[in-house]
Amino acid sequence: MTEAAASDGLFKTFAGCVGRMSAEMEHAWLLNTESADKLKAQRMTFISLLDAVTPAGREREALIVRVDTKMAHASLLTTASFGTTPTRSRHAQRRAERLVSQCRALLLDS
Asked: Is 85:93 a contact under the CB 8 Å cutoff?
């Protein structure tokens, strides 16, 4: 893998993690859970990481990835919490947890 490809991978990974953590944080606020502060701190860490690896001129692309990922993850969380069937809710919950776990695995203090 070239350095440019690795950098692009980090860029998209961190942008996606910002989006996921944003959705998780807002969902925690909605449900009034205690995890909101930790999620906010993790989101800020991912924002710093994203800022560090975003190539010049690709800030708009970073925002698009963040928003698209946030909306998709928020949909999973909504289905997990308010889904029409228990099976669908469990599937959405497991998927959301797996995606967030992948992000947290990138942090030293997760």
From this structure: no
